[in-house]
Amino acid sequence: MLRGEVMNARWHTLVQLLTLLLLGLMAGFFFAFAFDVVPATLQLDAEHYVLTQQAINRVVRNVVFGMVYFGSAVFPFILSWSYYQRKTLLYAKAWLIVALIYFVMVFVLTRWVNVPINQEMADWNPNLPPENWQVLRDRWNMSNYIRTAAATMCFIAGLFLTIRISTQNAYANSSLNN
After folding, report:
1. Exposure pattern of 73-89 as b/e (b: 16+ CB <10 Å)?
2. At residue 72, does pLDDT exceed 80?
3. Which of 130-142 are b and which e, b meaning 16 or more Cβ less than 10 Å from the residue's Cβ?
4. How is residue 124 annotated by DSSP?
5. Whole-angstrom Cα Rg for the chain
6. CA-angle at 96, arms to 92 and 101, nearest 5°
7. What's the N-to-C CA distance of the chain in angstroms?
8. What is the mean pLDDT of the chain?
9. What is the pLDDT of residues 103-144, one digit of tens each?
10. Of 3, 79, 130, 145, which has the fewest beta carbons less than 10 angstroms from its beta carbon?
């Protein structure tokens, strides 16, 4: 292998690992929220629900979360491009599908549903929430369940693709050595 090919292979491996890490972190984040935080908030009255959500929305806007959140939306596309550059079109297409599903079902859904509700909720008076606060809470939660399922499926698909590729490479290398 030439030096440039080694560097390209290392870059590709790094992108692949970062993609899986970012997808896994976000799937875990959404999962924990869906199955731990949401059930807890469903037990709260309006005032405490609003205070809790406002506090969560203030602290979730931080650099580390931002890098993971935006990175998880971008890196699957970068990995797809890397496979395309390596002339591995089947995996380029597969990762492009994962990237598109994640982008639409997590990133776009969050932007169109969860973020507007979060922005509206930021202005609520906890002592006097709007009459439809439960409707908005339930819409936010349903969107979160959808993005949890999508993020988890994309992470599992990414693991499957990575294991499949690694297995194929191992078989190819063992047959070359025999």
Report:
1. bebbbbbbebbeeeebe
2. yes
3. eeebeebbeebbe
4. -
5. 20
6. 155
7. 19
8. 93
9. 999 999 999 999 999 999 999 999 999 999 999 999 999 999
10. 3
What type of residue sits at position 116?
Answer: P
> pTM (2 decimals)?
0.89
CB within 8 A of 75, min separation 6: which ones? Answer: 15, 18, 19, 22, 23
Predicted confidence band at 172 (pLDDT cuts at 50, 70, 90)? low
SS (H, E, C) 62-117: CHHHHHHHHHHHHHHHHHHHHHHHCCCHHHHHHHHHHHHHHHHHHHHHHHHHHHHH
Q: How far apart are CA 103 and CA 91, in angstroms?
A: 18
Whether the CB-CB separation of 121 and 54 falls below 8 Å is answered with yes
Token pair in block for residue 94? 């597969």
> What pLDDT score does 166 carry?
72
What angle in degrees, to the nearest 10, is found between the helix axes of 133-177 and 3-32? 150
Residue ranges of domains in the chain: 3-172
Per-residue pLDDT at 5? 67
Find tokens 């993609």 and name the residue. Answer: 19
